[in-house]
Design goal:
Length: about 190
């Protein structure tokens, strides 16, 4: 009977030490200067991600939270100081989502969620420099209004119209026109 009491006291002491140790580790975690995020995307971004995934299907790979500086950089020449200064305004930002080709992971376009202005009377914010930077770099930037619900067909059409590369057609009244070399001496090689 005495050995049963001793086992009970040992078990109780072990439980007491375990609970005390776990509370110390939880307290230590609370006192440290860091905490971990549970989700990569906010609830709004997660909603858009699932709509985007449905809209693009298996056509593209989707990546999120990619820093602008990973995809765009200013040229190194000294004549573009203004461009470098403009780029510094957006260098620390992240694109919400990036679509890449499944075949070779080449970048197709960047996507950005934006908040709709509640009041039209509100003073206009200065133009966001990210759009002209993306245009100058040749990166299509698709901006989609953030909201609780997304129309996958609208997302699909918006992306398709932004990444479409129209072929160059030269209208000719009598059909296709072939180039001709009239004087061989003028041909530079």
């Amino acid at each position: 009977m005495n050995w049963l009491i001793l086992v009970g006291i040992a078990t109780l002491a072990t439980l007491l030490l375990l609970t005390r140790g776990s509370s110390k580790s939880a307290e230590k975690t609370r006192r440290s200067g860091f905490r971990r995020e549970d989700f990569l995307f906010s609830a709004e971004e997660r909603g858009f991600y699932f709509a985007l995934k449905q809209a693009v299907g298996d056509d593209y790979e989707i990546f999120g939270k990619i820093p602008v500086i990973e995809l765009i950089s200013p040229r190194e020449d000294e004549t573009n100081r203004g461009a470098r200064k403009t780029f510094e305004q957006v260098a620390d930002r992240c694109f919400d989502f990036i679509l890449c080709s499944k075949a070779d992971l080449s970048i197709v376009c960047a996507l950005e969620l934006y908040e709709h202005a509640v009041s039209a009377r509100r003073s206009r914010a200065p133009e966001d420099p990210l759009r002209p930077i993306c245009d100058a770099a040749g990166l299509p930037l698709v901006r989609i209004e953030a909201g609780p619900f997304y129309d996958t067909n609208e997302i699909k059409q918006t992306i398709a119209s932004s990444v479409r590369k129209d072929p160059l057609y030269l209208p000719e009244p009598d059909g296709r026109k072939e180039p001709r070399i009239s004087i061989i001496e003028d041909l530079e090689l």
